[in-house]
Design brief:
A 7-stranded mixed sheet has the order 1-2-3-4-5-7-6, sandwiched between helices. Helix 1 runs antiparallel to helix 3. The protein has a single domain, classed as Aminopeptidase, CATH 3.40.630.30. The chain is an alpha+beta fold and 191 residues long. It is 42% helix and 21% strand. Bound molecules: coenzyme A (COA). Coenzyme A binds next to helix 2, strand 4, helix 4, strand 5 and helix 5.
Length: 191
């Protein structure tokens, strides 16, 4: 069993002004990971356009940050203009950071965020050959109904409760404090 806690970085929600770091992360994905992430091969131009719209879409985006770089991302996207019953989830972990448990942990965050927004069905574009994603889905089988077909995984989050709402709120505050602390450290080092 892989353990993300052995990694030195931390997982927190990304801010709207972090689109460039988000883009750089997606551009660093190797060809196979890129294809698995978007369910088809995509160009650099496609990724640049996609990343630029990160904050427009009002999505929830978690990142694993190590140093100044985003090395893994989990996205929860609305399917329409507002949060409804259904949403889409996507995951990307850079090759050197795969198999350390990041995808599994981030899947847990996405399921909780979905639950807290009243979403009861989550779709993932997952190629049938994506055995790592299927391994992660199996680890969350209490919350997941995964159809191993061509593209769709379906997640059935339970209803939100006080603890799941509180856990996300507390974690957001800690993430904010850590980001401020990190910024201060960089400013001091640059002085
Ligand atoms: C799929 C992805 C998100 C998984 O992230 P990750 O951080 O590597 O995943 P984890 O380390 O949490 O878990 C991977 C699991 O797959 C298992 N695994 C690794 N290679 C495997 C293989 N070839 N077949 C089956 N299982 C495999 C690992 O053993 C691990 O399970 P364990 O923790 O029980 O040992 C990552 O590989 C990735 O970004 N891939 C490219 C993009 C993509 O496929 N996105 C998903 C589509 S939305």
């Amino acid at each position: 069993m892989s353990d993300h806690q052995a990694l030195p970085g931390s997982i927190r929600k990304l801010w709207p002004n972090e689109t460039s770091a988000f883009r750089d992360h997606l551009l660093r994905l190797d060809q196979s990971s890129r294809r698995m992430r978007f369910a088809h091969s995509v160009s650099d131009a496609f990724i640049e356009d996609y990343a630029a719209r990160m904050s427009d879409m009002g999505s929830v985006v978690y990142g694993y940050i190590e140093g100044n770089e985003i090395r893994a991302v989990a996205e929860l996207r609305k399917l329409g203009d507002r949060w409804g019953d259904e949403a889409e989830a996507a995951f990307s972990v850079e090759h050197a950071f795969q198999d350390h448990g990041l995808g599994s942990v981030m899947m847990g965050r996405i399921i909780r965020s979905a639950r807290n927004r009243g979403i009861n069905r989550l779709y993932m574009s997952c190629l049938a050959e994506n055995s790592k994603m299927q391994a992660i889905a199996r680890k969350h089988e209490a919350d997941l109904k995964f159809e191993y077909g061509e593209v769709i995984g379906e997640i059935l989050p339970q209803t939100p409760n006080y603890f799941s709402l509180l856990a996300e709120a507390v974690e957001d505050r800690v993430g904010y404090m850590m980001a401020v602390f990190d910024l201060q450290k960089r400013l001091v080092n640059a002085a």
